[in-house]
Specification:
Structural class: mainly beta
Shape: globular
CATH topology: Rubrerythrin, domain 2
Number of strands: 4
Largest sheet: 4 strands, antiparallel
Radius of gyration: 14 Å
Bound molecules: zinc ion
Number of helices: 1
Strand content: 25-35%
Oligomer: single chain
Number of domains: 1
């Protein structure tokens, strides 16, 4: 007997992550020069990321996502990490 798990994800990551503490937005296409993060670096690949503005831990960041209908939403990064782990 086999089991399968299907997950339908109806949104797109747009590569932007917002600090909930101060509102800073990390944009993957831009990176962060001050922190030595090259443009195009995926947020989840940055170890020990801290907000360049307020120093908040990575867990304070939420992803900006776009649904298929074009609305913008925010998603907590712990959810993204568990999606990546699947
Ligand atoms: Zn911040």
């Amino acid at each position: 007997m086999s089991s399968s798990l299907s997950i339908y994800i109806q949104f797109n990551f747009i590569g932007k992550y917002e600090c909930q503490a101060c509102g800073y937005i990390y944009d993957e296409s831009v990176g962060n020069e001050k922190k030595g993060i090259a443009p195009g670096t995926p947020f989840n690949e940055i170890e020990k990321f801290r907000c360049p503005q307020c120093g908040a831990n990575k867990k304070y960041f939420v992803a900006d996502v776009e649904t298929l209908s074009g609305e913008n939403h925010r998603m907590h990064s712990s959810i993204i990490l568990s999606i990546n782990a699947l």
